[in-house]
């Protein structure tokens, strides 16, 4: 009875993908025997098929499963429990890398689109000027001319519109 319980535990671990190669070999050899517990008969065909897939004929000739690996009532099955390890597949790695690249691109676009570029551009006497020194010199001289003439805006507008007629 205890042997059947040990095999059931091992089957559960096998179905969860937590068994070692040695434990799987124990299962394969158990299901190759004739005296299998009735409640475990449903697994027999599955494990025999896995055994056929696992080992080729040439490997079976060179490998012998000892009778000590088959659990007996005097010697109970020892189950090794390994901690679960997280395996990152290539697909998961590529997905993570793609997300990281996307985030960096968005951050770069945000930073560069919000940065203010300092430039100076003006049309002075019909010429396109981009030099900040030239533009600031013209602005200063124009303000000085306005201040020196002591003209009001009204008089300047009258002068501008009168010259058009």
Structure description:
- With 165 residues, the protein is mainly α.
- 60% of the residues lie in helices and 4% in strands.
- It contains seven helices and two strands.
- It has a two-stranded antiparallel ribbon.
- A hairpin with a 2-residue loop joins strand 1 and strand 2.
- Helix 2 crosses helix 3.
- The radius of gyration is 44 Å and the shape is rod-shaped.
- The N and C termini lie far apart (119 Å).
Number of strands: 2
Question: Distance N terminus to C terminus?
Answer: 119 Å
Radius of gyration: 44 Å
Q: Helix segment count?
A: 7
Measured by DSSP, the beta-strand proportion falls in: under 5%
| Largest β sheet strand count, sense and barrel closure | 2 strands, antiparallel
Q: Indicate the multimeric state.
A: single chain
**SSE pattern, N- to C-terminal:** HHHHHEEHH
What is the topological layout?
Blueprint: H1 2-15, H2 21-32, H3 41-54, H4 57-62, H5 90-114, E1 122-124, E2 127-129, H6 132-149, H7 153-162
Antiparallel strand pairs: 1-2
């Amino acid at each position: 009875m205890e042997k059947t319980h040990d095999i059931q535990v091992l089957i559960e671990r096998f179905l969860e993908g937590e068994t070692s190669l040695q434990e799987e070999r124990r299962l394969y050899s158990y299901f190759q025997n004739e005296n299998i517990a009735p409640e475990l008969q449903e697994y027999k065909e599955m494990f025999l098929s896995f055994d056929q897939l696992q080992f080729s004929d040439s490997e079976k000739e060179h490998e012998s499963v000892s009778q000590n690996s088959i659990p007996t009532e005097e010697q109970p099955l020892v189950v090794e429990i390994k901690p679960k390890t997280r395996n990152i597949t290539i697909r998961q790695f590529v997905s993570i890398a793609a997300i990281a690249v996307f985030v960096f691109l968005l951050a770069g676009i945000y930073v560069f689109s919000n940065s203010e570029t300092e430039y100076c551009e003006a049309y002075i006497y019909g010429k396109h000027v981009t030099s900040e020194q030239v533009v600031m010199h013209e602005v200063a001289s124009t303000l000085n001319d306005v201040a020196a003439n002591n003209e009001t805006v009204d008089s300047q507008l009258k002068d501008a519109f009168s010259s058009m007629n």
